[in-house]
Prior knowledge:
This protein is of the alpha/beta class and 142 residues long. The chain has helices spanning 2-20, 41-48, 71-81, 85-97, 110-119, and strands at 27-31, 62-66, 105-107, 123-128, 137-139. It has a five-stranded mixed β-sheet with strand order 3-2-4-1-5.
Amino acid sequence: MLVKNISKKLTILFAYGVISIPCLADVVLVIHPSNDSTLDAKEVKRIFLGKAKKFSNGKEAIPINQVEGSAARESFDSTVLGRSSNQVSAYWSKLVFTGKGIPPKEVENDAAVIALIAENANAVGYVDESSVSASVKAIKLK
């Protein structure tokens, strides 16, 4: 009986550990190296929720999202946007349905985000900190 209870508790603890691992991604914002905008979490939130269309320097801002379910997306949505990915998806569904907005382009992974931003000085996205390369400028958001 005691072994069964310990086994059950360890299984539950392991399950929680596995579930929380994707949420531990250390996400950084990435922009083109030539982009001289100053960005803070509030401005980034406005850009990714479609409430702002330009950077602080007046240039167009093109947000790039990662696909729903990715560790970076989950972390970005909860940390920067202050919402779960399901809430963000519902928010965009409502805007699309009412004709009031178009959600950010979605790409598969960090490499795709970096490739798009390296090609477009107006793009802004997020990646796991370990994926940052010299072709983008990383900004740590708090």
